[in-house]
Write a structure and sequence with these properties.
The chain is α/β, with parallel strands linked by helices. It has 16 helices and 17 strands. The strands form two sheets. Strands 7, 8, 9, 10, 11, 12, 13, 14, 15, 16 and 17 form an eleven-stranded mixed beta sheet that branches. Strands 3-2-1-4-5-6 form a six-stranded parallel beta sheet. The structure holds L-homoserine.
């Protein structure tokens, strides 16, 4: 059986997971893959800390030059994370004639293009299954399984940490802060969890997916991004009352004109939609192809073992010789794509609005007057008996409205003396568009 020599650069959570699979399950993987992966180096600047995996001392090194100079090593796993050192590592590996496997969505989304161009020039491959949705073979499915399709839509829960937090707030009534601490303790969160809760991590993943699925040279800055930091317990409760669940969604749509819209934001998801039932740290992505209709991918998108599993799948792809062929023949991280990314201003959506209003005659008509003036049609209204004399919560669900109109309406609400505070505004997943 053919043997291919591998190096891991970055001995963190994912790096130690990959080392463990290669050292402890190498024979099982070889039997299934038809090729043997020999781990020769685990490279990191800090090697003393116990990672819970026994790596023979002779494999450990802090000398990247030694790894790069070794002609036996044909593929390197970049598992450093971040966009600076990792960029240099990938560039140097490619220039040294190695293929690269990476789990680094931030690197690909923010600085991927020059690296992909370089890999093409050098006839090398960059594989990134582990960068999007951890253990789900989503890149494989979109790249190969759905190759006969024009992809028209993607709707996904792509961040396990945020989904864990929202699930705990919804099901256990846990506070945002406590749920985030739990997600960090369980190893789901990024080193800087702001990336998780701000939507940045999902936006990184959506950028990578958009390049693959929509054949558009999407940039991270093209993704409209809002996180879950401002979601309040009250909105979680009202969502349930209205038969919805709040999820952080990553949404990509191809418009009739070929333009693509890309956004990450919290959304009211109807309970009738399978994405409403994706709980805890799990990811799920619904991909719509023109031939297949909707296809749904579900599984562990965060954590050491699922992510390491995806890295090893890419290593096998490289070892069998398929990765370089695919990378050379297809624009899978689109650079040449002609599509354009649409501004969020033009995107239609349904909205949930929550106002804290004065309890007096005429309030409702003033609010609905603003909506009407901006062509925003009301689908339903919910108001309970007041618990305080001074204010009462008022919830409005709208029909489809264009983002630009909603922005103007929100500004006008701020000027109404009958509305306390800024209204809460959360988009509602439009089921027609997700099918
Ligand atoms: N921090 C990420 C998440 C890990 O919570 O989904 C996988 O990218």
């Amino acid at each position: 059986m053919k043997t291919v020599t591998v190096a891991i650069v970055g001995f963190g959570t994912v790096g130690s997971g990959v080392a463990r699979i290669l050292l402890e399950s190498g024979e099982t993987v070889a039997a299934r893959a038809g090729v043997r992966l020999k781990l020769k180096y685990v490279c990191d600047t800090e090697l003393a800390r116990d990672r819970g995996v026994k790596v023979p001392a002779e494999l450990l090194t802090n000398d990247l030059d030694r790894v790069l100079a070794d002609p036996e090593v044909t593929v390197v796993c970049e598992l450093v994370g971040g966009t600076t050192t990792a960029y240099d590592v990938v560039e140097r590996c490619l220039r040294a004639g190695k293929d690269v496997v990476t789990a680094n969505k931030a690197l690909l989304a923010e600085r991927g293009e020059p690296l992909v161009k370089l890999a093409r020039e050098l006839g090398k491959a960059i594989c990134f299954e582990a960068a999007v949705a951890g253990g789900l073979p989503l890149i494989l499915a979109v790249r190969d399984g759905l190759v006969a399709n024009r992809i028209t839509g993607l709707t996904g829960i792509l961040n396990g940490t945020s989904n864990y937090i929202l699930t705990s707030m919804t099901k256990q009534g846990t506070s945002y802060k406590k749920a985030l601490a739990e997600a960090q303790a369980k190893g789901y969160a990024e080193a800087d969890p702001t990336l998780d809760v701000s939507g940045g991590d999902s936006a990184h993943k959506l950028t990578v997916l958009a390049r693959l699925a929509f054949d558009v040279p999407a940039r991270f800055e093209d993704v409209h991004c809002e996180g879950i930091q401002k979601i309040e317990a009250a909105d979680v409760r009202y969502a349930a009352e209205l038969n919805y669940t709040i999820k952080l969604l990553a949404i990509g749509r191809r418009g009739a004109d070929g333009g693509v819209s890309l956004r990450v934001h919290p959304a009211f998801v109807p309970r009738s939609n399978p994405l409403a039932h994706v709980d805890g740290p799990f990811n799920a992505v619904m991909v719509r192809g023109d031939e297949t209709g909707d296809t749904l991918y579900y599984g562990a998108g965060a954590g050491q073992r699922p992510t390491a599993s995806a890295v090893v799948a890419d290593l096998v792809d490289v070892a069998l010789g398929r990765a370089e062929i695919t990378f050379a023949a297809r624009d899978i991280f689109s650079i040449a794509g002609k599509g354009t990314v649409q501004s969020i201003d033009d995107v239609p959506s349904r909205y949930y609005l929550r106002f804290d209003v004065v309890d007096q005659p005429g309030v409702l008509s003033r609010i609905t007057g603003v909506l009407g003036a901006h062509h925003i049609s009301i689908a339903s209204v919910l108001q309970h008996e007041p618990v305080e004399a001074t204010s009462v919560p008022l919830m409005i669900m709208t029909h489809l409205a264009v983002e630009r109109d909603m922005r103007v309406a929100l500004k006008e609400f701020a000027g109404l003396d009958v509305v306390h505070n800024r209204p809460v505004c959360i988009r509602v997943l439009d089921e027609e568009r997700s099918r």
